Amino acid sequence: MKIDLTGKVAVITGGSRGLGEAMATTLAAAGATLALVARDEAKLAGVRDKLVAAGGKAAYFMGDVTNEADVTRIAQEVESQLGAAQILINNAGTNVRKHLVDLSLAEFQSVLDSSLTSTFLVSRAFTPGMKGTGYGRIINMTSMLSHVSLPGRTPYSSAKTALLGFTRALALELAAEGITVNGISPGPFGTEMNHAVMNDPKANADFLANLPVGRWGKIEEIGGLACYLCSDLAGFITGTDIVIDGGWTAK
């Protein structure tokens, strides 16, 4: 069965690059109208233009999703320009790789805010528009590091593990409305966040040695999973987290 998201408005935070761009591309190809949210206007415009050139529908909205006023404004702008959103993908997030004793409070807080606080603010802003319609899809981008971890990842693992709890609780709150809430936990994908490891031959070799499939994930592989979870086919899936990590956490 072909997935058809025609007529659905899909909001993607962190939609200007990486996994956000990959999911936007797949959802646009399925007919959704994309609302891309990020802070970099040039990159947002670039993704928007690619989607439109491929025959999709898209607009971008600039703002800081850790800022309550920005999120409120963005939600109003999306509804005014595109209509109520039926799909929300909370993809924004940053990482700081340092050992605990070298971390500042500001660095730790910034990672929590980028993944967890932003998801709270954006979900709170867009959920009311889904209620009463009988349909809604929220995807929170968690991480394999919410299931296992690595040295130097205390902020990131903390934020992503908390996001799992947020996902479960919100799924229970919204289940009766026909709104599903799920997590996607990517493993090692070839995004900008991982370029430091990928570009270090030894670190890259060591990392791949721990991956059963022996390669980095392709960002397009996230798009198909997200598109499925946003479809009618996935209406019975809620409150869970799907790990897509090349077998890392299976060991």
Fold and architecture overview:
This protein is α/β, with parallel strands linked by helices and 251 residues long. It has a single domain, classed as Rossmann fold (3-Layer(aba) Sandwich), CATH 3.40.50.720. The chain contains eight helices and seven strands, in the order E-H-E-H-E-H-E-H-E-H-E-H-H-H-E. The protein has a seven-stranded parallel beta sheet with strand order 3-2-1-4-5-6-7, with helices on both faces. The longest helix has 26 residues. It is globular, with a radius of gyration of 17 Å. The model has no long low-confidence stretch (mean pLDDT 94).
Major beta-sheet overview = 7 strands, parallel
Strand elements, count: 7
Number of helices: 8
Percent in helix = 40-55%
Q: Which strand-content bin applies to the residues?
A: 15-25%
Q: Please give the order of strands in the largest beta sheet.
A: 3-2-1-4-5-6-7
SSE class: alpha/beta
Number of separate domains: 1
Q: What coarse outline follows from CA principal-axis ratios?
A: globular
- Give the low-pLDDT segments: none
User: Which CATH class applies here?
Assistant: Alpha Beta
Head-to-tail CA distance between termini: 33 Å
Quick check: average pLDDT? 94
Order of helices and strands: EHEHEHEHEHEHHHE
Rg of Cα set: 17 Å
CATH topology: Rossmann fold
Fourth CATH level, the homologous superfamily: NAD(P)-binding Rossmann-like Domain
Reported CATH architecture: 3-Layer(aba) Sandwich
